[in-house]
Structures are given as C-alpha cells and as structure tokens.
Design goal:
By secondary structure, the chain is α+β, with helices and mostly antiparallel strands. It is about 40% helix and about 20% strand. The chain is built from seven helices and five strands, in the order H-H-H-H-E-E-E-H-E-E-H-H. The chain has helices spanning about 10-20, 20-30, 35-55, 60-65, 115-130, 155-175, 185-190, and strands at about 65-75, 80-90, 95-105, 135-140, 145-150. A five-stranded mixed sheet has the order 1-2-3-4-5. The chain starts with 10 loop residues before the first helix and ends in a 10-residue tail after the last helix.
Amino acid sequence: MNNTHQFYITPSDMLEYLYCPRFIYFENVLDIPENQGSRWKVQKGRSIHKKKAAQNPDYLRKKRGVTDKQTEVKLHSDNLGVRGIVDEILTLDDGTMAPLDYKYAEYKGRIYQTYKYQTAIYGLLIEENYGKPVKTGYLVYTRSKNKLLDVPITDTLKAHAKETISSIRTVIRDGWFPQSTKYKKRCIDCCYHGICVQ
C-alpha cells in the first residue's frame, strides 16, 4: 500500500462504529468475527439493486438531471485511507457527481446519521477519484417501495465523516477500547453482548 496508512477503512466500518464504537474493537482488535446478519442484509441489498437496475435503468434521469450512471464502482483514497464500492455514481447536468446507495431497509421518517456519514464517505471518494464536486447523495429504501431521498453532502458532514474515520483508525491501530453506544437498546441484539463490559 503506497500511502501513510497501514490499512483501509470501509463505509461498513463506519456504519458499525457509529452503531457502537466497540463493534470495531471486538471485530478488528480482538479479531472476533461478527454475526453474519448484517452481511446478509448487505448481500440482499446488492441483489435488489441489480434487479432494480435491470428493470428500469433510467429511473433517475428525469427526476434528478442524471446524464450518466456507473454501477458497482470500486474506489479508494490513499489520502483518507478509505476504500469502498459505490452502488451507483451519477453524473448530473449541473457538472456535479453524486453517489446513490440502495438500502435494504424501510424509511421511518428520518435518515439515520449512519447513512448520512456513509453517503459523505462515498462523496469524498468520488471527489478525489473523479475531480468533480459532490453536493448531494441519494438513498433508495427498497423496503419502502424504493423511496428515493436526497442527502445534502455539506462541508460540515464531510468534516464529521473524516473525524469518524480518524477515530476508527485510532481504535484499530492503537487498540484503544472505546466507550460503548449510549443507546443501550442496541446492546440487546448485539453479537458481542455476552463479552462486552458495560
């Protein structure tokens, strides 16, 4: 790896860290495999994405001014130490680009912070790899009749996403044991519940 980082952080790492910082510690520092449930959801989401793309590949063009679309794009950033696969990268008629991510989830009235940060990471990857500005991302909730929502990718959101990447790197690199999530309901179904000291 030709960069200053010893490893890459993925958007999935960020989702897990934001859900509970200790998830990253157990999985990456103690090397205890996670429950495969979340992996299944990712695979299910990708399967639905491919089906949707095949059925109606131009569904966004009229709504959002899309002039080009790439699917399943692998990107990495040596500057950020991040890599990931973007479901779709859209080129818009205003000269900007945008990530689109399919979520195998229901929309429950608000966009979760985890999704916003993940979208911001994709935006940062696109900016660095394509040299184009990214101001907006899109989420498709496949369990809510493919509801499409805009995610403004502001400078503040980008900065917070970068800070989170740095925190994840500290946990993995230094073996730092972070505080658990303040949302204790999340602990009930956590695969690490039995070994996590509260």
